[in-house]
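Course exercise 7: structure representation. Students receive a sequence record and must write out the corresponding structure in token form. The form below is the worked example handed out in class, using ABC transmembrane type-1 domain-containing protein (253 residues). Read each field label carefully; the graders check that inputs and outputs are placed in the correct fields and that the protein name is recorded exactly as given.

STUDENT ID: A-19
EXERCISE PROTEIN: ABC transmembrane type-1 domain-containing protein
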Amino acid sequence: MTVKNSSDQRKPNALDWAESSWLRWIHVALWTWINPILTIGHKQQLTEDDLFEVSSNDECNHLLNRLETIWEKNIHMDTWKVLIKTFWKNWLFSGLILLPYIAAKIAQPLFLKEIILTINDNSRPSHAGYLYACGLGLSAVVQALIHQQYFFRITRIGSHARIGLSSIIYKRLLSLPTSSMIKTTTGQIVNLISNDVGKFEELSISIHQIWAAPLEAIIVFVLIWKQIGLATLFGYGVLLLLVPLQLIFSKQF
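STUDENT ANSWER:
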């Protein structure tokens, strides 16, 4: 009797198919690659065989090999530096798609301002208001599309870091001598995989906010300064005062 692997019965990964060519970018942008699963789930309860095959980019062996290749060349390098050298292209791409998201987010209030001015000023051409309204709607659409793409991709990178590090830990544990295994408790291993590795996943998800938040704050500061002048400093002063308060409360709770 032969035992069939459930993965052999699954369909090829649709995301890999959509990302294999730039001509299929619309499937990635609009998430149509996931429609087959949604269609089946709408008709009946999903089973394991209804899912796609695991993407080759998400497999443990692939991620383990990527990390080990970098680690063997840089034995004394810190873990976070190894992760950066391994996944820097993925992080760079996710950061680049965040730029139009910030632009669309800032453009929305500017379009709204122009719409209000057009309504209140009869001397302005009426078609200008329609153009600003179209710009407002377009910026909202762009913001919605990019936000979901960014969150999906940055979360995927975080899971790649967690899976890769967990695989390395598991492989090293299997190669340890018995004398070393006796000194290592199960609690230490569980804490290392669940807590310590999880921190790198959390860092991966929020890493772009380190530069995106200040950039957005500076742009908004300039725009507000042009409108209300010196009063902008008082508003930002209140925000800066909240930073130490948040640090205090985070340590207390």
